[in-house]
Give the backbone structure.
Amino acid sequence: MHSIAILGAGMMGNVHARAYRAIDQRNSLWIVDPIESRAKAISEKYGATVASFEEVLENSSVDIVGICTPTFTHRELAVRALKAGKHVFCEKPVALTLEDARAMDRAAKKSGRKFMVGHVVRFFPQYIRVKELAAAGDVGEIVMARLYRGGSFPSHGIDNWFADITKSGGVFVDLSIHDFDFLRKLLGPVKTVEARSVTLSSERKKNSFDHGMAILRFESGALAHIEGSWAEPAGMPVNFGTFYEFVGTKGMITNSYERETMLRLQTSIDGKPRYLQENPAYFDPYTEELKSFILSVEKDREVPVNGQEAIESLRVALAANMSAKLHRSVELSEVF
Amino acid sequence: MTKIAILGIAHMHGYSYVRALKRMNDIEIAGLYDEDRSRMNKACKHLGIKPCEKPEELVARSDGVIVTSENSTHREFVEIAAGAGKHILCEKPIATTVEDAEAMIEICRENNVKLQMAFPVRYSASVRKAREIISGGLLGEVVSLVGTNHGRMPGGWFIDPVLGGGGAVMDHTVHVVDIVRWLLNCEFTQVYATYGTMIHDIPVEDCGLEMFKLSTGQYMTLDCSWSRPKAHPYWGDVTLHIVGTEGTLFLDVFNSKIEVYSNEKGGRWDNYGDNLDSLMIEEFLKVLREGKEPFTDGNDGLQSLKAVTAAYKSFREGKVVEI
């Protein structure tokens, strides 16, 4: 049983509140958000107490702080929570710069508290299966990968913060970092990144990288192509999807959200057309992820994704941004 | 009766072209020449056509010539055909060097001979539809492209660095480059490429990734890998993801598939879409009979080859190079 304060009552704040409730009904939840109505909504839905950040820090019964706020706020919140003796779970990306990320990691080490970053793709069953299959050797050694992750622009962000690259880091840092992180764990360290990205002209998306493609070469010699996209128009029936293909020396593994679908609904009630395409499952990767964090806290074990891991994945995303900006390939050693 | 000579049967597409010709009216296959006599005789027996010892002789009694020899030998056969004033359909890539490709275009021009390039993908109705969608403004302004041309490792002369002129980069770059040149009415101006021999124990690269810049400003990546395992139910793909300011388009040219599961032969995909080789051969017959300018011509072959040779240069130098 834990007392958990969730910072940020946006989309991820809701996901965390639901997961902590699913893990243990007895958990006490606190919700912090400058927008009262959003905090109140979570408070009512999941039985959380609305509080200020300062109240949370001073409340010694609160042992866990979950950071679900926009990326540019992560450092300050994480460092203060760790200093106050809280275990911290921070949503990905850990931060926008290596300097910020390292400050967070240092604060964690100094405090002796657990610090985990939400690279949740590692907990998605179709990605867990890739690691299992790769380890089993059915397709030989993985030497090449193609991954796509994308959909419509995340317009749910407060003050449209995803659109500001100085706040979200753009599509490589915010979205493709999932794939960079997964590939790093599968194929080892990245050596070279050649990337390009484009900003769509719409005023709403000003300043942000909306569509990116990156060619990675790993130290092992393996190659990968990563496409991250916020370029799908809004209001489409399917607004998010992933694809992967892993080629090994003896075969390949592939999965596509478009091909592999369990359930499709087309309906029109009272003239309102609705479309649904889903793979319903009881297994929830976010719950598994937070469960693993709580277990690390309870058993005093190393967390599955620590600050150092998050820093390494951020480095790849920053190398992609640098390559896209300079229009040349970037050695990972240039990003430090 | 239109008489067609086949020069070289190194490329398996030659078999497909002959079969397409045999389904058409008023066509006679004048014969097949191949330097490799056993390969020639085998193909002639298989396809029911006549072998021929001398290419010049065969060309002289033909109306048009199809060159499906190894990449590096296209030039010598094109020179024979052009010298005899016969229009040509040449397998892709046009040649293994830009010098050869330019010489081929020049000799065809001098002899008033039309040179059609075998870029069957451009004949797909899906590519034409994509072009209509783009020109109709449905994507807004096109800003980014991601392409693939995957295949199985073909073996044989394809993996001979001299005869093939390279590996997967040489074999699988040109189709997508050609359709994008046509879709966007652009040229390819810069390339960064990385590749390697990753899967098979062969003397050429089997996997490659390229980052191109287009004259119209966009960047495009291309995966040209021979990365389809033997166990895969289909030979490969040609796909293109086009991102525009107002929408996106995904093109998967060979995805009109039927899944077949046989206890005897295992699982495979069959394609029920238009036969692109037939459409391309029909175009060649129009070139021969009506004097039409070919839809895919020697310059298209040259421009796509330039992208390939620049990709090799980019990897050797480890940087972006001009095409």
